[in-house]
Give the backbone structure.
Amino acid sequence: MQETIESLLQENAALKSALTDLKKNKHELELVIENTGVGIWDWNVQTGETIFNERWANIIGYTLAELGELSIKTWLKFAHPDDLQESERLLKAHWSGESEYYLFESRMKHKKGHWIWVYDTGRVVEWESEGVPKRMIGTHLDITDKKVAIANLDAANKQLKKLSYIDALTQIPNRRAYEEKIKTEISVARRANSFLAILMIDIDNFKEFNDTYGHDKGDEVLLQVSQLIKTALPRKTDFVARYGGEEIAIILPFTQLNGAINIAKTIVEQVFSSAIEHQHSCYDKSVTVSVGVACSDSSYEKLMHFADEALYEAKRKGRNRYEVHTTETIT
């Protein structure tokens, strides 16, 4: 009898020790959760009953007391409607065994009216039957700052990429941008069996201009002429780029020869009528340009060569003019 009593006392002491350890561990776990800023949810999938910790409410700007009676509808009330379909898909994937956890970055409405981002994680801990969840527990972690930082970084990268395609002097696309654009337009034109036109433009006697007025003034004129050319293009799909030095290239998608000629004529006239002083010009001592025009509905890769030949011909014939590649027929 004495041995039995001693045994029971020992078991009782062990149980008390275990409970003490459990309470200690529970307290430590609560401290960890509190310090990591993690919101906790415990969801009875079948009844909808849901338990949230205080931090879960704080993430969206509330206290638990302010939220009133809690259930899964509490989450639905604050969840972004555009995220619900994907959330349901991921939940069903977890319930069917396709994924070990439910993991989702979603948006929730803050008390102040803005949307915040949470990293939502969860796992089934009790099953009603095979494939039918009874209880899930999970966490919410505020990742708004992370999402904002990523968005800002993406925007900065896009801006950096954009700047890498812009010529710093003329503020129009550079040769790198041109070479990528022409590949795309050739591909589009080939698929559509459509016309594609190229204009090559060169500022006449530009070396003499720099020698006379200085390179700073030459840079100003190059910028001015580039912007004049840009404004002469009637469509958003038309593309102008600084090809190199004082050469400017234009890509005109879905443009037949007559349309390309009209634009070339307009450019020549607008630059001349701007009356930029150039002592070495034969045309009213003003800056002029020469333009080579090429157009095709088949020989797309040769267009640049054709336009260069036409530009050379315009130079040979006296400048301040446009010329068309001679193998092309005006329609």
